[in-house]
Amino acid sequence: xxxxxxxxxxxxxxxxxxxxxxxxxxxxxxxxxxxxxxxxxxxxxxxxxxxxxxxxxxxxxxxxxxxxxxxxxxxxxxxxxxxxxxxxxxxxxxxxxxxxxxxxxxxxxxxxxxxxxxxxxxxxxxxxxxxxxxxxxxxxxxxxxxxxxxxxxxxxxxxxxxxxxxxxxxxxxxxxxxxxxxxxxxxxxxxxxxxxxxxxxxxxxxxxxxxxxxxxxxxxxxxxxxxxxxxxxxxxxxxxxxxxxxxxxxxxxxxxxxxxxxxxxxxxxxxxxxxxxxxxxxxxxxxxxxxxxxxxxxxxxxxxxxxxxxxxxxx
Amino acid sequence: xxxxxxxxxxxxxxxxxxxxxxxxxxxxxxxxxxxxxxxxxxxxxxxxxxxxxxxxxxxxxxxxxxxxxxxxxxxxxxxxxxxxxxxxxxxxxxxxxxxxxxxxxxxxxxxxxxxxxxxxxxxxxxxxxxxxxxxxxxxxxxxxxxxxxxxxxxxxxxxxxxxxxxxxxxxxxxxxxxxxxxxxxxxxxxxxxxxxxxxxxxxxxxxxxxxxxxxxxxxxxxxxxxxxxxxxxxxxxxxxxxxxxxxxxxxxxxxxxxxxxxxxxxxxxxxxxxxxxxxxxxxxxxxxxxxxxxxxxxxxxxxxxxxxxxxxxxxxxxxxxxxxxxxxxxxx
Amino acid sequence: xxxxxxxxxxxxxxxxxxxxxxxxxxxxxxxxxxxxxxxxxxxxxxxxxxxxxxxxxxxxxxxxxxxxxxxxxxxxxxxxxxxxxxxxxxxxxxxxxxxxxxxxxxxxxxxxxxxxxxxxxxxxxxxxxxxxxxxxxxxxxxxxxxxxxxxxxxxxxxxxxxxxxxxxxxxxxxxxxxxxxxxxxxxxxxxxxxxxxxxxxxxxxxxxxxxxxxxxxxxxxxxxxxxxxxxxxxxxxxxxxxxxxxxxxxxxxxxxxxxxxxxxxxxxxxxxxxxxxxxxxxxxxxxxxxxxxxxxxxxxxxxxxxxxxxxxxxxxxxxxxxxxxxxxxxxxxxxxxxxxxxxxxxxxxxxxxxxxxxxxxxxxxxxxxxxxxxxxxxxxxxxxxxxxxxxxxxxxxxxxxxxxxxxxxxxxxxxxxxxxxxxxxxxxxxxxxxxxxxxxxxx
Lengths: 315, 332, 443
Description:
The complex is a heterotrimer of chains A (315), B (332) and C (443).
Chain A: H1 3-9, H2 13-41, H3 45-48, H4 62-68, E1 69-73, H5 76-80, H6 88-95, E2 98-103, H7 106-137, H8 143-152, H9 158-172, H10 178-202, H11 206-214, H12 219-248, H13 251-256, H14 264-267, H15 279-300, H16 304-308
Antiparallel strand pairs in A: 1-2
Chain B: H1 2-7, H2 16-29, H3 32-39, H4 43-72, H5 92-99, H6 101-132, H7 139-151, H8 154-164, H9 171-180, H10 196-221, H11 225-233, H12 238-266, H13 270-275, H14 287-296, H15 301-331
Helix pairs in contact in B: 4-15, 5-15, 6-10, 6-12, 7-10, 10-12, 12-15, 14-15
Chain C: H1 2-24, E1 30-35, H2 38-54, E2 58-63, H3 65-77, E3 85-89, H4 93-98, H5 106-112, H6 121-127, E4 140-143, E5 147-152, H7 153-156, H8 159-169, H9 179-189, E6 192-194, E7 197-203, H10 212-224, H11 244-260, H12 270-278, E8 282-288, H13 291-296, E9 306-310, E10 321-322, E11 326-330, H14 337-347, H15 350-359, H16 366-369, H17 374-377, H18 381-388, E12 391-392, H19 400-415, H20 422-439
Parallel strand pairs in C: 1-2, 1-3, 7-8, 10-12
Antiparallel strand pairs in C: 3-11, 4-11, 5-8, 5-9, 6-7
Helix pairs in contact in C: 2-15, 10-11, 10-19, 19-20
Domain ABC transmembrane type-1 (chain A): 110-300
InterPro entries (chain A): BP-dep_ABC_trans_perm (IPR050901), MetI-like (IPR000515), MetI-like_sf (IPR035906)
Family (chain A): Belongs to the binding-protein-dependent transport system permease family.
């Protein structure tokens, strides 16, 4: 393309400036809620409910203390009789006429999130890679119907799916177990994995494997040594997409787990203080919960489009 | 498999010795009889071995439960009464749902929600995409920033919006009152019957406009430059170029975004459940919330199974259209 | 490629971590499930004695009230093993007994010499028996609770306000004795500036998701003459649920909501009520008694600033209050029932119950509450006793959840969303409830 021809479609400087301003304004405004979550997590409970809302405040980690502990209100005499406070959290709690009664359930819930999200992602990507290769390289009878069936499972309303799953898990003892959640999330994610990975594998020329097989590789060896290495980027991107779904999922987790295997999303909204929600603690939990996703979003930005459209749009 | 995947980076065709070593490792990892069997597998067998686990999993976790749901939808079964006899009641669950004014209300609420979120997200999303396509300096960075909300958990972030919406201490009311002069105690986003439906639309729009934007951007970038160049030669105005080139050519992409958002919001549960729980009264009670109340609070399992089937059918129809559009976009 | 390696390694590590974690969790630890609220935290403190005595560790699973019924009924229905002990809400007793969620405690009580006659009668009927008024026990009364009111004593005793109030309403500003008086007081304080801050009349229950608005409305309706059914003919509700008196009561509740609550209080239950009172927003505050110890100890509004009064009387002088509170039960799906019973035995002990009260729990043991020193032991103790004497409870039928769902919808639609009339709401409720009982084969 010649430079002159290019300039014809290149937007003018003014229009670029206007566009930049508007986009930046939108971006900044849309970041306000996230900024507010972050800011609130470092406020003291009184600061968090001050009117007008405080933009400048003295940061405190009380929210994080409250996130990880349960506390009980006691009389001053009771507190004075206790041995001296050993940590910052202890001290802050006592200043509010409370004592730390024990750890909260946030940490186990967060660990559940990690285990279930990573476990289901691993399984979904594993199964998805195999199936995608199968669909990509072989003539499978009814392939289109099967692919549609696989995709359509992702569109079912979660509550509708949860009803029979609830009954089924109750019968076979999978209620409120990490294994049950991993299987369920795998089933939901495998559809995304198959569609995305099929796209990635389709892009790997068949000639590579054929050449390998002429050299004496079996089909499986060719798959291991030739196709998989070529598909690593696609597999990594797919894995992160599956991970984000499993990490963020709420409806199944809220209905099918109650404690042992409960993940963070249904737990965080139930963090309360003495009255209603303890907003700094909720914000602290939310912040900790969101950080991994922010990192993944930045890592994934190039693959994002492909992932969210099931590979329909590839740019 | 896991092991091999991990080591793969060092395995390339230019290092046959490494390759061989890895092959040996693989052979050792595979039990002897299996390895010989595997070696002789036909492509057909490989195909089925690769595909079958996925299909089996989906059969177990999606299809079998679905059939069970269909079966239950003809009964009066209640999941919290294990000792009670289950009776077949034919189609009466379906009849009850289709004549029940509450479920129709819920469907209407859902329709409003879907409609307004799509309208707003498409308008704002397309505009943003168009602006970003001006390719100003730093547009890539700002695009990534804009994308952040859609990656977050609707439940966890939706929950926090309740705080933002608080009439007195919430940031939202404060900002609105700063610009409009309405006292912040009167901006009752979650309590007012008229405002609450908008409260959920706003959060959904905030979260998902980036999604629509991203797809629209792909659409805009798929338009080849030479078409614009030809238009310039013909001295078509910018306005005309927009209506006769940009919009029609990006349309399949916009459709794709609309359909996807439509399906997603039709089954919307988490954000609304945490933000309003369907209230005030029943003004924001979308279909999924009604379904959840019937299934997991009233425990009318048979009745809610029938409702679930009705929603299935609706979504399945939409999904069908979706896949058609998807294939059309793909074939371009 | 590197990222794939990392993802794989990360997943392997995570899987290894799960296996390790499941290995660590102690076999003999008991898990107790309850709502997340002050008394639960006090119970954590109290239970340290149990662990010290028996060596059995205690784990706790607390869920906020708005999710409490949802989560734990779901857990029980799924035959989950999460909870060994559960402090379940009073209305669950019918369903939990009939569907086998709870272990029947009669034999255990007999063996250990625990006598139900040692507990306050209303709590035994309310929290422990199913069918009601028969000697079949499914729980040990654990936490007595009832809806009552707190008020800002410091505001009520301001001379200038007392004078103004007397001129306006003709009686001395004090804790109201009737609902009519309560509304006058609420109106008086609504939108008033006190100490430079705008305050509101009263905080009442309006929550939609679980049981909030029903608890609040019922608390008022009882005193107005509402009855669940024909006393002579069970399940006959026409003319009782939707009697003229009930309609008056529901209209009153809406009027109170419209005139005298803080802005945006359209979804408030216990937690929001406490917040409103503690932040100095309201003059009066409807809430369960469990909130009182916390408010009494509060730095900002506690001590001399807070007063307590029992639910006021209705127009005909009838006076009732909504029962809250729970009994502690052993979950029949638990593998550790023996240890769980040990906990109940320990908890039933008189000294433990006395400490329970001192830490902020509401003991149901007669030896504790009928102690002559009890009424003066805390500023709210007498109000608590008075309130417990006038309690009524919602349906405790196995279908309670469906009955509650119906009332939540009808009441919230009318009171908060302003749809239809009170008569229509109650007529609708009769229709919904009739349907539920017909489905159950009880009508």
